[in-house]
Amino acid sequence: MEQKNFKRTTVTAALPYANGGVHIGHLAGVYVPADIYVRYLRLKKQDVVFIGGSDEHGVPVTIRAKKEGITVQEVVDRYHNLIKKSFEDFGISFDVYSRTTSKVHNKFASDFFRTLYDKGVLEEKVEEQFCDEVTGEFLTDRNIVGTCPRCGAEGAYGDQCEKCGATLSPDELINPTNKNNPGHGLVKKPTKNWYLPLGKYQDWLKQWILEGHKEWRSNVYGQCKSWLDMDLQPRAMTRDLDWGIPVPVEGAEGKVLYVWFDAPIGYISNTKELCDAQPEKWGTWQKWWQDPETRLVHFIGKDNIVFHCIIFPTMLKAHGDYILPDNVPANEFLNLEDDKISTSRNWAVWLHEYLVDLPGKQDVLRYVLTANAPETKDNNFTWKDFQERNNSELVAVYGNFVNRALQLTKKYWGGVVPACGELQEVDQKAIAEFKDVKEKVEQYLDVFKFREAQKEAMNLARIGNKYITECEPWKVWKTDPKRVETILNISLQLVANLAIAFEPFLPFSSEKLRKMINMPTFEWTQLGSTELLKPGTQLGEPELLFEKIEDEVIEKQLQKLADTKKANEEASYKAAPIKPEVSFDDFEKLDIRVGHILNCEKVKKSKKLLKFTIDDGSGVERTICSGIAAYYEPEQLIGKDVLFVANFAPRKMMGIESQGMILSAVNFDGSLNVTSLLGQVKPGSQVG
């Protein structure tokens, strides 16, 4: 599709819910690609504003407050500040990061709703909705859970199944219950709400998206098409809740704006906040949201496609004064160690924890998340891959080339950039290889292919390493020092190109590298140039740009995840179903006794069996074999008192006659515990 010429670009990144921190799924899906794109536009001297903020209404924050026994305001204050600082420390370069509990937003969203109401856009309807049978409280979609009708997963929410990603309504759930009070029944009661009649805009949406935006990513276009192929239903823009922006209509007491009406308007209100604070820099907010010469781009995850491509554009269209998104480069999901990232299960790598655990390694995470970006399909993050990409790409390719070029210059020329002499074929070949790097990187960034763009940037370092290896300046120095000047000049020009090419992707490393090569200023237009560093320029002291990540660092992160998995298994443990009833007479036939373990040893040629010698109180030692060698070392059990069944018929095990069975319990995590006693009891005592 032909590229339209816009004067400026408004870039938004999905507003994270202020009920928890930001994790790597959020970063890979939204914030890293958005930041790369904005940094790229700034480097090209384009007029751009980058809008972020916390989504502080809706049900998740109320659930968190109830769980912790604190006010909702305390919850959103805590997480807004945590998220904002995490983004700042990670280098996500928002021009404004505000919140939907601000006074500016409250008024803006309220006025927006009132405009739609006064224009007669919204439909007032009384419908039956689920409420708690005991308290009478109306339940939001998020407070209702049940079995997903699409994939059969338990615990699907009334608005979405987190396992398969299906968008749902509470009526579709199988066996719906109240999430907060599972013991309370659900009943339906009539309530009045205001609805956005999406069906009335369906033909327009089809034309606008399916005909007008065929350049959108296939995953985004496909999801929009699947929605538009169905009959769009009216969607409630208000909710029966006590946390949120009050509905500005008479007779709407006890109702607030639906979070998905309120939140995207936060992009506009946050822009207004920025422009009102710095009008001389940013101009009016209307310039960024109402001028047809402004391009609007939303960065979101795939679970938000319907809201940003169907619902929010319909709201903007219905209002009438706003531009519509030109592109919505939504990413798919990132999994963690082959399992779906889940906030509720704490199965995530949290940004604020990462920044503490791996200080100074913001760019490593940015690099890995971009290299594994789930641009058109779900992808997977593993700590081993993180380590491998750092050590074999950032350290061994990029860092290695920079270090070779700078150390050789320091060794032979005292860290001064030498002049470029007569070019040989190997020089011309290397220069030709990186001349078009700018064009290649731009070609991918312009269509939101960040993974490919970063590969092109890294290719510069590969060209550099190959060039130095082929030229062997350490050998040539002995016979032709003048030739080494040219080799190092070209190598240093490549290093300077790397500092520019990686600026959108790895801003911390690029800044560090520019200081090392004494290049305080640069232009994006210079990318591909062989005259970035002037001969005679004194370089700074070479430092390692990246450092190797050792196994113990990775093991620590893997252990943290293992502990989380174990805690989740423990929390979700349910006892196995009770076996069929037996009569008391049958139970009495078992002779369960106390035995004192005199000796215990592994059975040769068996991985499972331990051989026990037991004092059973009869004066004659008893031998019992038990398949618990995977759980205990023999010396752990010697001297213990255990329970055993004394009247099982003897059976041969690995040639040993076993005279009974030791009782043990299998734990939720598959571990096993031999049944022992609380107090001291004589061997041979019966259990009954």
Describe the fold and architecture.
- The mean pLDDT is 93.
- Helix 4 packs across helix 7 and helix 14 packs antiparallel against helix 16 (450-471).
- Strands 16, 17, 18, 19, 22 and 25 form a six-stranded antiparallel beta sheet that branches. Strands 3-2-1-12 form a four-stranded parallel beta sheet.
- Strand 5 and strand 6 form a beta hairpin.
- With 688 residues, the chain is α+β, with helices and mostly antiparallel strands.
- It is built from 22 helices and 25 strands.
Shape: flat
Mean pLDDT: 93
Helix content: 40-55%
> C-alpha Rg, in Å?
33 Å
Structural class: alpha+beta
Counting H and I runs of at least 4 residues, what is the number of helices?
Answer: 22
Proportion of beta-strand residues: 15-25%
Main sheet overview: 6 strands, antiparallel
Domain TRNA-binding: 586-688
EC number: 6.1.1.10
Main location: cytoplasm
InterPro entries: aa-tRNA-synth_I_CS (IPR001412), Anticodon_Met (IPR041872), Met-tRNA-synth_bsu_C (IPR004495), Met-tRNA_ligase_1 (IPR023458), Met-tRNA_synth (IPR014758), Methionyl/Leucyl_tRNA_Synth (IPR015413), MetRS_core (IPR033911), MetRS_Zn (IPR029038)
How would you describe this structure in keywords?
alpha+beta; six-stranded antiparallel β-sheet; 22 helices
